[in-house]
Amino acid sequence: MNQGYASTLSGGGGHMHAVAISRGVLSMKLFIKSLMVAVLFAFSAGLASAEEIKRHVEIQTSKGNIEIELYADKAPESVKNFLRYALAAAYDDTIFHRVIPGFMIQGGGFEANFRERPNADPIRNEADNGLKNLRGTLAMARASDPHSATSQFFINLKDNGFLDFRSRNSGGWGYTVFGKVTAGMDVVDAIAMVQTTSVRQYDNVPVVPVIIKGVIVR
User: Fold this and answer.
1) What is the band of 218 on the pLDDT scale with cuts at 50, 70, 90?
2) Is residue 202 within 8 Å of residue 176, measured between CB atoms?
3) Rounded-to-integer distance, Cα 80 and Cα 22, Å
4) pTM of the shown model
5) Nearest alpha carbon to residue 125 among 174, 159, 74, 167
6) Which of 110, 94, 117 is nearest to 200 (CA)?
7) Lowest-confidence segment of 109-113, 169-173, 175-179 by average pLDDT
8) Which of 23, 117, 179, 187 has the smallest count of CB within 10 Å of its CB?
């Protein structure tokens, strides 16, 4: 389960000048946004350490709210990482971009226009913590590198044992479980039932975006 999908787009001189200006404005906006997120990450890094003991969060979505218990004792680095993004408001207005009924729903990395959000450094895989990818559990998405998880997460719709830790090699690490849904599984199941399509290189994308309005730390 990669991050993109756990994880891992002739005119005259006047027209050309206008396009160049528009692109310049867009680039500046993206730079400012990235800078703001970087500042928030720096600020929230200290907060995450202090807030680690807060074991519950609420994922507020356009389909309803999902309450999560975080397992800071079993997956401390993953919980700290998740709280860092949450406290920095980095999940606000992102989407569940990959929805597969009978498997999982994944989000936390893209906006509705599929612009990818800036990420902090990847974290160490903690899938050897004994926790299993059971229905309702929250886990880190990543790329093929076992230690490449950043912001994206997924919620298991059923028991997905093939995602569990087996061995400490590239093919056996599995996906780190770091929390579980305690309320709002009906919301998760409703998200799983939305109509999906393909967008650019991405499959299983909801036709109507399912927005993550924010993640509230309790």
Assistant:
1) confident
2) no
3) 38
4) 0.81
5) 174
6) 110
7) 169-173
8) 23
Q: What pLDDT does 26 receive?
A: 46
CB contact at 8 A, 53 and 204:
no
Run of H or E including 144 = none
Buried b / exposed e across 60-70, counting CB within 10 Å, b at 16+? bbebeebbbeb
Beta-bridged to residue 190, according to DSSP, are none
Cα dist from 67 to 61, 125, 128, 142, 177, whole Å: 11, 24, 24, 23, 16
What integer is the mean pLDDT of 112-141?
A: 97
Contact 181, 188 (CB under 8 A): yes
In this model, does residue 36 exceed pLDDT 90? no
What CATH architecture applies to the domain 13-217? Beta Barrel (2.40)
Distance CA 38, CA 116 (A): 14
Q: How far apart are CA 141 and CA 85, in angstroms?
A: 14
Residue type present at position 98: R
CA of residue 109 relative to chain centroid, distance: 5
- Flag whether pLDDT at 17 surpasses 50: no
